[in-house]
Amino acid sequence: MEITNVSEYEAIAKEKLPKMVFDYYASGAEDQWTLRQNRFAFSKILFRPRILIDVSKIDMTTTVLGFKISMPIMIAPTAMQKMAHPEGEYATARAASAADTIMTLSSWATSSVEEVASTGPGIRFFQLYVYKDRKVVAQLVRRAERAGFKAIALTVDTPRLGRREADIKNRFTLPPFLTLKNFEGLDLGKMDEANDSGLASYVAGQIDRTLSWKDVKWLQTITSLPILVKGVITAEDTRLAVQSGAAGIIVSNHGARQLDYVPATIMALEEVVKAAQGRIPVFLDGGVRRGTDVFKALALGASGIFIGRPVVYSLAAEGEAGVRKVLQMLRDEFELTMALSGCRSLREITRDHIVTEWDQPRPFPKPRL
Question: With a threshold of 0.85, does the pTM exceed it?
Answer without folding.
Answer: yes
